[in-house]
Amino acid sequence: MDIFELDPSAITDYKKLHDLLQQSGDCTANNIPHTDVTVVVKKSTMSKEMEKHAMWVAVCALSKFTVEKDAARYIKQEFDKVHGKQWHCVLGQHFGCYVSHHLAQFTYFYVNSIAVMLYRTTDIANVCGKTPKDLSTVSILPVQTNNATKNQILRRPEEGIPAPKPTPVIDNN
C-alpha cells in the first residue's frame, strides 16, 4: 500500500501532469483548495505517471464538485480525453464492485475518505468489428411474466420483432 501526501504546490514536480490539468482549464495547482490531502493507493496496475495523473484529476474533481456522480464523470472524461476512450470511474464512501479491466489500466485509491476506482475496458466496437451505432440498437424491454417476477427480453427494434406476449398464469388455488 502506497501513501502519498499531496501538496498542490508540488505539482511542478510533475510538469507533464500540470500541463494536462492546465489544458483542461478547470484545475491547476493554483486553484485546488485542498492544501492537505492524503491519498492512499490500495491497488494499482497503472504506470506511476498515469497513477499520479489519476490522483491529481481526482483531487481536482473532488475539490470542484460536491455531487459524487459529477466528480466521477469529470474524472472519466479527463481520462477519456488524455488516455483514450473506455474509462470508467466509481467513487464514494461506500460501494462494492467486481469488474473486468485492461491489465495495466486499473487503480483503486482513497482521497481522504473518498474511495476512487478508475479502470479501462475493451472497446467492444473494435472487438466485434461493429460501429457504436450498430451496437446501440439493442434495447431491453421489461415483460411481466407473472405477478412475482419480471424478465427482460433482448431484441433489436429495427428487426420489427414485437415483444413477446406475457404467458397468462392460472392459479388454481
From TrEMBL:
Location in the cell: Cytoplasm, Cytoskeleton; Nucleus
UniProt cross-references to SMART domains, sorted A to Z: Dynein_light
A Pfam cross-reference name: Dynein_light
Keywords noted in UniProt: Cytoplasm, Cytoskeleton, Dynein, Microtubule, Motor protein, mRNA transport, Nucleus, Protein transport, Transport
Keyword set includes Ribonucleoprotein: no
Top-rank taxon: Eukaryota
SUPFAM superfamilies: DLC
Gene Ontology cellular-component terms listed: cytoplasmic dynein complex; microtubule; nucleus
Molecular function GO labels: dynein intermediate chain binding
Gene3D superfamilies named among the record's database cross-references: Protein Inhibitor Of Neuronal Nitric Oxide Synthase
Main location as per UniProt: cytoplasm
An example Gene Ontology biological process: mRNA transport
InterPro entries membership: DLC_sf, Dynein_light_chain_typ-1/2
Protein family (similarity comment): Belongs to the dynein light chain family.
Name of the molecule in the record: Dynein light chain
